[in-house]
Amino acid sequence: xxxxxxxxxxxxxxxxxxxxxxxxxxxxxxxxxxxxxxxxxxxxxxxxxxxxxxxxxxxxxxxxxxxxxxxxxxxxxxxxxxx
Length: 83
What we know:
Elements: E1 6-8, E2 15-17, E3 21-27, E4 30-34, E5 42-47, H1 50-59, H2 61-66, H3 72-82
Antiparallel strand pairs: 1-2, 3-4, 3-5
Helix pairs in contact: 1-3
């Protein structure tokens, strides 16, 4: 039986399979959405759920995780990917 890689959502704190999450990466002071899961840099995971993405935006979760200002453009991209 193959092991399923589990990761924790930074908003809900749920442990979920990587396939159910979106990875966001800070690479050279730039925030990117990592759909392949292979980009280098500091990363975090977010559940593929509209409400979770909106909560992350309201609480400015990425600002504290990456210790930098994250534009609303990233959150809008996440919402578009989720739909």
